[in-house]
């Protein structure tokens, strides 16, 4: 009987990790029937139960609210993860219905719609005068930002779960099957493809890629960070952020599911059930590493590296050597978004739909506001006078900082 239960659990976890909609509910139902099986390693990835102590609730209740600038909304995200983007004169947001809604960045009023006529699977990318989106069918759609006119459609190998990125006449697209495609920005024609080794069990990642100085930086399943030449598709270097360890397939998951961050000297990434590590940009040589687990992500400013841990803590490290500066654990029990750094503040969303504003020097939470009570999964997006978030229900909120 035990072996049967283990087999069923592995089957359910595989469905979740590969992205089957509704599978987490199946696991919860299974856990009720097979109560002696520990599914914490699975539900941890997807924000299982939220548990805050009475002391935490009391401390959070007295924190002042963040200043709300405006709010609006789009269609609920369903199985996809969406993030808005700030354009030249508008904020763009979308839901699964495929309508790219233009909002005034100051007032939040909607003043136009680009109807893609497709069901979309990820957020909006912007660059080279274009807006870029992807679909569950592996279609990449390009629109002229100013007019909203369609420019081209390209087909890649599988669903596009993250915003395509445009740089230097190229469009870089990451697909759900672990490939990176480079397309010509003018025509959408394929220029090259990168595919690395993929473990048998992986976490579904909604992370895009980081592009700087014609180098693409991307984290992969298995804990590897890869630097790829944008123009040629050749690997410049490969580094190990975390190595899989443990006796079971679930324990051995050490995937990088978030976007790397960088400055002029180093690029850093964090892995689930693994480590945070920083590497030299030119060579990929490791500078420092610390044990931590995060499937949300990290941010960087002039002095510190900030990590949203899986258990709900935010940790600040000295970015030069990895010294622990502070740890804010008042949000333990919640699932956090990747952090955003603005001036002397760090903004992070959570699984209860709150935005939290934190001092960057000591980690104190100085402001906190509720949106629509649905999870904020993606990184807050900077605005000239604050930041904005998009919730799982499609709410778009702008806050001052």
Automatic annotation (TrEMBL):
Report the InterPro entries cross-referenced here: BamB, PQQ_b-propeller_rpt, PQQ_rpt_dom, Quinoprotein_ADH-like_sf, WD40/YVTN_repeat-like_dom_sf
Name used for this protein in its record: Outer membrane protein assembly factor BamB
Which UniProt keywords are given for this protein, alphabetically ordered? Cell outer membrane, Lipoprotein, Membrane, Palmitate, Signal
Location(s), subcellular: Cell outer membrane
Sequence similarity: Belongs to the BamB family.
SMART domains, sorted: PQQ
Q: Which residues form a coiled coil?
A: none
Give the organism, scientific name: Nitrosospira briensis
* Function in brief: Part of the outer membrane protein assembly complex, which is involved in assembly and insertion of beta-barrel proteins into the outer membrane.
Chief localisation class:
membrane
User: Which residues are in the Pyrrolo-quinoline quinone repeat domain?
Assistant: 97-328
User: Which topology term describes how it sits in the membrane?
Assistant: Lipid-anchor
Q: Does the record carry Lipoprotein as a key word?
A: yes
Q: How does it assemble?
A: Part of the Bam complex.
A Pfam family in this protein?
A: PQQ_2
Give GO terms for biological process. Gram-negative-bacterium-type cell outer membrane assembly; protein insertion into membrane
Q: Where are the transmembrane segments?
A: none
Q: Which GO terms describe its cellular component?
A: cell outer membrane
């Amino acid at each position: 009987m035990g072996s049967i239960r283990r087999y069923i659990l592995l089957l359910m976890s595989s469905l979740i990790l590969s992205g089957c909609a509704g599978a987490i509910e199946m696991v919860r139902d299974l856990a009720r029937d097979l109560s002696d099986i520990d599914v914490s390693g699975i539900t941890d990835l997807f924000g299982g139960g939220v548990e805050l102590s009475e002391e935490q609730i009391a401390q959070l209740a007295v924190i002042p609210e963040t200043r709300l600038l405006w709010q609006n909304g789009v269609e609920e995200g369903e199985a996809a993860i969406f993030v808005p983007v700030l354009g030249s004169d508008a904020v763009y947001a979308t839901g699964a219905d495929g309508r790219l809604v233009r909002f005034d960045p100051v007032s939040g009023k909607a003043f136009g719609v680009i109807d893609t006529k497709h069901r979309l699977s990820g957020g909006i990318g912007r660059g080279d005068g274009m807006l870029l989106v992807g679909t569950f069918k592996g279609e990449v759609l390009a629109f002229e930002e100013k007019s909203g006119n369609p420019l081209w459609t390209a087909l890649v190998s599988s669903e596009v779960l993250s915003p395509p990125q445009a740089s230097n006449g190229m469009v870089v697209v990451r697909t759900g099957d672990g490939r990176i495609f480079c397309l010509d920005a003018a025509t959408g024609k394929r220029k090259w493809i990168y595919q690395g080794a993929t473990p048998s069990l992986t976490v579904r990642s909604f992370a895009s890629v980081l592009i700087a100085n014609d180098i693409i930086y991307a984290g992969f399943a298995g804990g590897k960070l890869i630097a790829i030449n944008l123009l040629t598709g050749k690997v410049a270097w490969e580094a190990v952020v975390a190595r899989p360890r443990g006796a079971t397939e679930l324990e051995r998951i050490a995937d990088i599911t978030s976007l790397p961050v960088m400055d002029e000297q180093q690029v850093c990434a964090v892995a689930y059930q693994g480590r945070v590590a920083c590497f030299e940009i030119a060579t990929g040589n490791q500078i420092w590493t610390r044990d931590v687990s995060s499937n949300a992500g990290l941010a960087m400013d002039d002095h510190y590296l900030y990590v949203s841990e899986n258990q709900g803590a935010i940790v600040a490290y000295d970015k030069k050597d990895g010294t622990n500066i502070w740890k804010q654990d008042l949000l333990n029990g919640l699932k956090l978004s990747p952090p955003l750094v603005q001036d002397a503040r760090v903004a992070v969303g959570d699984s209860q739909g709150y935005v939290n504003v934190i001092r960057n020097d000591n980690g104190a939470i100085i402001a906190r506001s509720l949106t629509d009570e649905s999870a904020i999964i993606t990184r807050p997006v900077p605005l000239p006078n604050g930041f904005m978030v998009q919730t799982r229900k499609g709410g778009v909120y702008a806050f001052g900082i």
